[in-house]
Design a protein that fits this description.
2 strands, two-stranded antiparallel sheet, coiled coil, 4 helices, FlgN protein
C-alpha cells in the first residue's frame, strides 16, 4: 500500500510540474484545464489512499520499509517544491491578467471618456468617474 502511495505522490509532483510549465509557456486554456482536471483526480486518489491506509493500519508509518520511507520523503519534498513553483507561476499569471485588464480599461477610458455628470436634488451637478464596461472573451 505504501508503494501505491509513493506512485501517487510521484504522479502528483509530475502533473504539478507539467502545469507549471504550461503556465510559463502561456499554453492554451483547454490544455491547462485538462492538466488541472487530472491534478484534481490525483489529489482525490492521494487523499483516498491515505485515508484507506490510516483506516486499515493506523501504525503504517512506523511499519514501512526504511528504503521506501526515504523514497516517500523525497516524493513529499518534490511535491512541496512543485507546489511552491506552481503557486508562483499562478501568482504571476494572475498579476499579468490584472495588469492587462487595467491597461485595457485605461485605454478605453482614454478613447471614450467615462466621466458622467448628473444633477442632484438640490440642483448641484455631480461628476462621476465610472469604470468602463469591459467584456473579455474567455474562449480564445
Amino acid at each position: 500500500m505504501a508503494a501505491e502511495l509513493l506512485d501517487l505522490m510521484q504522479a502528483m509532483a509530475r502533473i504539478t510540474e507539467q502545469e507549471t510549465e504550461l503556465l510559463y509557456e502561456h499554453a492554451p486554456r483547454a490544455e491547462i484545464e485538462e492538466v488541472v482536471r487530472d491534478k484534481i483526480r490525483l489529489a482525490a486518489a492521494l487523499d483516498a489512499q491515505l485515508a484507506r491506509m490510516e483506516r486499515e493500519n493506523p501504525k503504517w508509518r512506523a511499519e514501512i520499509d526504511p528504503e521506501l520511507r526515504v523514497e516517500l520523503a523525497e516524493a513529499a519534498e518534490r511535491m512541496a517544491n512543485s507546489a511552491k513553483a506552481n503557486g508562483i507561476a499562478l501568482e504571476r499569471k494572475i498579476a499579468f491578467a490584472e495588469d492587462l485588464i487595467l491597461a485595457i480599461e485605461q485605454d478605453t477610458r482614454r478613447r471614450r471618456g467615462s466621466t458622467s455628470a448628473s444633477y442632484g436634488a438640490g440642483g448641484m451637478m455631480q461628476r462621476a468617474d465610472l469604470p468602463s464596461p469591459i467584456a473579455i472573451n474567455t474562449q480564445l
